[in-house]
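(Deposited chain)
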Amino acid sequence: MFNLRTIALKLFRAGKTQAITSIITVAIAIALVVMMCTYGFSAKEKLDEDIYELYGDSNIEFGYELEDERYIDKKQLTQVANLSGVMAVAPILLNPEVTVEGISINMLGVNNDELTKSRLHFTDNIEQNEIIVSERLLHSLEKSIGDQLEVGHQTFMIADTLPIHEFNTAYITNADMKSLFPYMQEGKFVLVQTIPELEETVGTQIAKMDEYLRVDLLNESEAMQKNIEGLLVFIVVLSLFVLIITGTLLLSNFRIIFTKLQKQLMRLRAIGATMTQVALIVLTQLTTIIIIGVLAGTLLGVGMMKFGLHRIIRSLALPPVQTTIPVITVIVIALVSLVVLQLFVMWQVWKSTNVLPMQMKQLEKQVVWTRKKGWVSSGVAVIAIFLLLIGMRENAPVQSFIGSAMMTVLFIYVLPYVFKWCMQHSLPYLRGIFGKNFYIALQRLLPQVRKNMSAILTIISVMVILVFSTATMKSVAVSSEQYIDNKFETEVHGTYDLSDITGEQTLELLADIRNLEGVRDVYASSGIASLGIQLPNEMIDADVQATNLAYRDQQYPVTGAVVKESFAKEHHIEVGDVLPIIDYYNNQNYEPLLVSAISDESTLFQYSDIVVDWSEEIANVLYMHEVFVDADDVEVLQPIMSKLPAMHFITKTAELEEEYKMFQQRYVLVIGTLIVLIIGASFGVLQTLTNDILSQQSSYRITRLLGLTQNGMMSVIVWQALIFVCYGIVFGLTFGIFFTKLLWHVIDPASSTLVDGTAVLYTVAIIFVLTLICFTLQGYQMSRRQL
């Protein structure tokens, strides 16, 4: 006696070719997903570890310069600790000129709080009269842990070592440091841990406490973090696409397997097997395929990561990853992929429980539109349009994506009915244009549309993903380049993280920059401030910005205010009007502004309504944000960056190179994934069509007996395959362009989406060539067989 599991496994022999093909398909897809996702998560984890290694839990460091004799006092510490958004502060004393047994060392006085330990990388508490030294210093002193070390007039016991090989460094307690150097107060510099979103606000407030304080925001890795996060999102989306394509290919293979098992399943039903038992047999077979494929793909992916990933990373200049393979991450990715693919299995099982094999064979020839389908489609269309309207009105990407996806799926659902209707009404005309063989091929194809819907969906899905991915990448590349061109009005662009430099200070800073050797000219722009303006009949709010008006493309008076044309028309403002200014935030009134010009210059009014020169009184409440320097590189600005650590400069050339590098990283991932998808999808679709044509051998023989020649039969087979593929390609490209245009139009109506015609043409050409080669050979073999 055999149980259901044994029967299911024995029935594999009826479709072992399709079972092996399905396993290979799943294994390749899972290997690709495992490698991409594991790389993405590992790269992010590696970056997080590197950042923590550099900064620990601190977000801000502030203090006095080493040559400055001042120290942080208790009052300053208390002020910083009481700022909104500050979670912890940790003062650190520093003396870089301590000599121990003839060796110059950096001596730090520290406390045993968690913030200090995370930043300076020690774990055990440092007790009084204890010292921790770097491994390099321990080796230089020829000492070992537990030995005594004399510093100044005190003796310390070496309690531990630091994993620092580059410097001679030592840590003692803050109290011991004050004992050695009584003139020191609370700290030379202070570590600050803040709520991440408030670090710039806290840094600005600290900078305002004392103009001599040096404030460092520890955000040098922010660009890399954004790059990794964007790359990770991209990888997850690509992985989802891979699983969807794999699922549609599996449905095609499952249908072939299920068709070959019809006789066996009918016999089981004849001897009393229930539909539930049949479903369990199908579920066991298909789940076994998925499990074997996932296990094989996971092992293959791990092997590729172990022996080939680092070479790929080096060749593509991708961010580095951990050297060890994250086993838990790999297992989670494999399990999630298993669940996603299992959904396609459950769909096939559900179909097997609702339709008997013989009934399925009859229904495959029926593509009939019913009133129920009409009502359901109408309901889905109404919901999709409603979501799209919400997305367009509220600028909600999630609703826009769901609405676009629902509309696309709806069109794909009604596609077979539209295709059948169009073909039935155009058959006589097509026969006159393309001839008898094309007419026969189309007649033979119409009953197979629903039967091969999974293969059609595979082609359509590949085309949709191809258009969406390449169009999005091309549009992003063009828009990024345009954004950089607009951002960099000069070769060098600078940003200032804090908000403590206003009108007169900005002019002084610009003068210092202008005096540097290698700087030809410089100007700056402020952030936006919302101020009140008292008009004769109403009080209005206006976004005001400061810049150097003398450096604009159009010539404007340096005194007075330049008003945006649309804003002036809306509020009936004219040249020569006087605008009383009210500062709600500081509760102050300022000298009224004289409207000196009205302009529609787009680069001047990107976000503001009124622009003034830095020499105006109102500019003293506007904080400098951007600096534009006419210079060849940032090296000439090192004196400014040393003086103002919160000031960051970058050249346009460097920004374009970084943007191109980030684009190439994503583009290579997209193209690599698309190549795998296109090859896998083409293989699966061609296999499905080949099996379908082979299953109709008797029908083709009858057609031969009725007068069709050998070359005519080969022509019919080739035409049938080409029509089938064209059907998927044409509608796939149509839906892909529709989905891409609709989604990005709803998200950003001003955006322009550019379809990558080269990638589309190459893909279509590859699919056509493969189809011609495959079915010319099959058609030749079948047409030459004896009747």
About this structure: The longest helix spans residues 652-694.
